[in-house]
Design brief:
CATH topology of the largest domain: hpI Integrase, Chain A
Helix content: 40-55%
Number of domains: 3
Number of strands: 7
Structural class: alpha+beta
Shape: elongated
Number of helices: 17
Strand content: 5-15%
CATH architecture of the largest domain: Orthogonal Bundle
């Protein structure tokens, strides 16, 4: 067993004809390197990814024995976490030479999107998920420093926010990022290895019935800004929660009754025009304009879109139950439902009104059904008129349902809500 190095033994170590390494018996992996010239330095030897590795710490006497042990201990702790300190040191040196740390997560993600996702239909959605759910926490960290615990904590935070199976989508893109980074020798191992999707997925077919729609509308009205009108717009337009929640005033052309969702915010990387029904316009009229650089409609700060949907949904459920029980005069049980079910309810409602499936899919910007594959490539008809008629019909139906009033007086009655 090698002896523990001491300050005296390090000082007295003599050069020989060949380079030699003297192990430290106190800290396994630390070596004093003595060159034939008499120059001395410190190095750490370890294994990473099944291969032997060496990290040079610095020269003696600029780095004494105590300092060498301290730095070697840090390096070996990184190895225990699955990191490669020698590779990290090299990457930092190269980053300084190039004036940028290319191993920051935000830079690796940018490279991944450009090289791996280029030309893919899902690129815009993947980029949106990174920007919204990953980069705020990890963007300024080096990818080699991301450990399994970081992944678990990030996913737990998403689960706690109540985003449901979106947590699985985020986990999937993180896992793909690390697998891609392994193939390009950016990292040696993935912190996602052996992990499973955090949220069980069940195919859903929940649609709110007419009574539930009425209770929902009344509860949302009581809830007020920002979530009340936001939730109503989800049902009136059939668009996704992120699309409505991040709506900006600049996206609206109220004179033309059009809401244009830019390509950066939609799944298929193509701007989506949503005709605004009278019902949707009335809802938008109730939204106060809060000034701010962000330009968001549903905001309390003017700078960022509203958050806290999970708690708002809990409050909405309670209000719905109060409305339902007051109407029925007895205890009512409302089956569990999610905000995304409003989109399915809108689609089912339009189908119920006799609107053709391709028009519904165009209105909801759903591309995996009638317009998937080769059909989507060659079918370039915008369906603008058909979408407007469909959403107007759905809006009239909603107003008749929630007010019990004739459709020909819909606008006046809607503004009175």
């Amino acid at each position: 067993m090698p002896k523990a190095l001491t300050a005296v033994s390090v000082e007295k170590a003599k050069p020989e004809a060949a380079r030699r390494e003297i192990p430290d018996g106190l800290l396994t992996g630390l070596y004093l390197v003595v060159q034939p010239s008499g120059a001395k330095s410190w190095a750490v030897r370890y294994r990473h990814g099944g291969k032997p590795k060496k990290l040079t710490l610095g020269a003696f006497p600029m780095l004494d024995l105590g300092e060498a042990r301290a730095e070697a201990k840090i390096a070996l702790q990184l190895v225990a976490r699955g990191d490669d300190p020698a590779a990290q040191k090299l990457a930092k040196r190269q980053a300084v030479a190039h004036g940028v740390d290319r191993d920051l997560v935000k830079n690796v993600v940018a490279d991944f999107l450009e090289r791996h996702m280029r030309g893919k239909r899902s690129k815009a959605e993947v980029e949106r998920m990174f920007n919204r759910n990953v980069l705020p926490d990890w963007g300024e960290r080096r990818i080699q420093d991301i450990a399994r615990r970081d992944v678990i904590e990030l996913l737990d935070g998403l689960t706690d926010r109540g985003v449901g199976t979106m947590t699985n989508r985020v986990f999937s893109i993180i896992r793909k990022l690390f697998n891609w980074a392994i193939a390009r020798d950016v990292v040696a191992v993935s912190p996602c290895a052996g992990m499973r999707a955090p949220v069980p997925e069940v195919s859903r077919d929940r649609v709110l019935n007419d009574d539930e729609i009425r209770w929902f509308w009344a509860a949302a009205t009581k809830q007020g800004f920002p979530f009340g009108p936001l939730f109503k717009l989800l049902l009136a337009t059939g668009q996704r929660l992120s699309e409505v929640g991040d709506m900006k005033a600049s996206e609206l052309r109220l004179g033309d009754r059009i809401w244009t969702i830019p390509k950066e915010r939609v799944k298929n990387n193509s701007a989506h025009e949503v005709p605004l029904s009278e019902t949707a316009l009335v809802i938008l009229e109730t939204v106060p304009r809060i000034a701010g650089k962000g330009g968001y409609l549903f905001t309390t700060t003017g700078e960022t879109p509203v958050s806290g949907f999970s708690r708002a949904k809990v409050n909405l459920d309670k209000a719905m139950l109060v409305v339902a029980q007051a109407e029925a005069g007895e205890e009512i049980n409302i089956p569990e439902w999610r905000l995304h079910d409003l989109r399915r309810t809108a689609a089912s409602g339009m189908a119920r009104l006799g609107i053709n499936l391709p028009v519904i899919e165009k209105a909801l910007n759903h591309t995996s059904g009638s317009f998937a594959g080769i059909v989507g490539v060659y079918q370039r008809h915008s369906f603008a008129d058909e979408k407007r008629k469909a959403l107007e019909a759905w809006g009239r139906f909603l107003q008749q349902l929630v007010t019990g009033s004739p459709a020909n007086n819909i606008l006046t009655l809607a503004r009175a809500l």
